[in-house]
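Operator note (shift B, R.M.): manual run for Nuclear transport factor 2 family protein requested after the automated queue skipped it. Running by hand, logging everything below so the morning shift can see what happened. Input copied straight from the record, untouched. If output looks odd, do not overwrite the archive copy; leave it for review.
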Amino acid sequence: MSDKIHELLNRNLQEVFGEGDAARRRAAIEELYTDDCVVYVPAGVLVGHDALDKFAGDLRATHPHFVYTPHGEPQALHNAGRLAWGSGPRGEKPDYTGLDVIIVRDDKIAALYVFLDSMPS
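Run finished. Output pasted below as returned.
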């Protein structure tokens, strides 16, 4: 199970939140997330593929040149996992960092909690 959790964390970061192509992003969401997924972000709670797809697309549009870079290795514990990451222009210090925590059911992400770190000014 830990290998699957590591795969889901890494693929979510790159193929959902890091993906600029809407069709590829939607295909990844359908493959990686349960139909009834719940995503908890600072701005609110998103339920289902359509809400996640809109959020990820809108977020991507605000900074299309940013890349997501894992900070360290993903960790898995039973049916949960976490991955720290940074986002910013390729090759530069991240503009912001965060931590994704997932709950897995039937080899898919059932819940995602996105924690954002405050960046020093």
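Quick read of the result: The longest strand covers residues 80-89. The radius of gyration is 13 Å.
Leaving this for review. - R.M.
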